[in-house]
Amino acid sequence: YVLENPQDVGISTVREIAEAAKVKPNTFVRMARQVGFDGYDDFREPFREAIRRGAVSFPDRARWLQEIRKSGALGGLYADLVDAAMRNVEETFAGISCESLTAAAEAIWASRDVYTLGVGVNNSNARNFTYLASTGMKQFHAIPQPGSVAVDDLAWAGERDVLIAITCRPYRREVVEAVKQARQQGVTVVGISDSPASPIIRGSDHGFVVAADTPQFFPSSVSTIALLETLLSFVIAVASDEVVGRVETFHKRRHHLGMYEEDPE
């Protein structure tokens, strides 16, 4: 039963797994000891680790989270989430060189138009990047635009333009297709994904792999956001002094319009 249903082991108590396998709970305890573990909890840990690494489906990970809540082990979940967030950021930047970020930033700054593409959870990441960039630069566009599709938004893009595409497993087909179409049109592609084998990394001029592991049932965005913030900082660094002036003007205008709550005296 374990060999055929490994995902169930990571999300089930010994009583639940025994009932599913139609044996007594003590049978699983004896089996765990027979193969070298102290008990069922130790035996279950490698299966839980597979869930943390994202090797199982979203629904199974959601059930695993519920199991943690029922057992009162939210302290352990908290520790796992914090550890995953910090580890993801460290692993992401350990695999990215300053030179590769500089090359991507220079391509972005030298472009005519920059399209940032993300759907699902990465839609907000792409739009946040575009929003921040637009405080000092005019050529950034988040796609797909409302009521449109990404390939249509790229209809007039060409060799002078850049597409920043973001997707993690399970890879979104519309992002993959947009990258393919952009390449055919001569657009420079900056790909951000969770594997060197990702279809958008393979089709990118500048590819960045982010670690997205999490105990949650969806890919973590922590390292993606950190990378996008860093990439934007590099773009500002290689840009002209005019951009800095625009950022200052943008925020002065907001203060003048009363958009910010002023700090108390």
From TrEMBL:
SIS domain ranges (all copies): 104-242
- Give this protein's Gene Ontology molecular function annotations: carbohydrate derivative binding; DNA binding; DNA-binding transcription factor activity
What InterPro entries is this protein classified in? Homeodomain-like_sf, HTH_RpiR, RpiR-like, RpiR-like_SIS, SIS_dom, SIS_dom_sf, WH-like_DNA-bd_sf
UniProt KW Transmembrane keyword: no
Keyword list, A-Z: DNA-binding, Transcription, Transcription regulation
| Domain of life of the source | Bacteria
Q: Where is the HTH rpiR-type domain?
A: 1-54
UniProt-listed Pfam families: HTH_6, SIS
Could you give a single Gene Ontology term from the biological process aspect? carbohydrate derivative metabolic process
Query: Sorted alphabetically, which PANTHER family does this protein's record hold?
Result: GLUCOKINASE, RPIR-FAMILY TRANSCRIPTIONAL REGULATOR
Q: What is this protein called?
A: Silent information regulator protein Sir2
Annotated organism of origin: Roseovarius nubinhibens
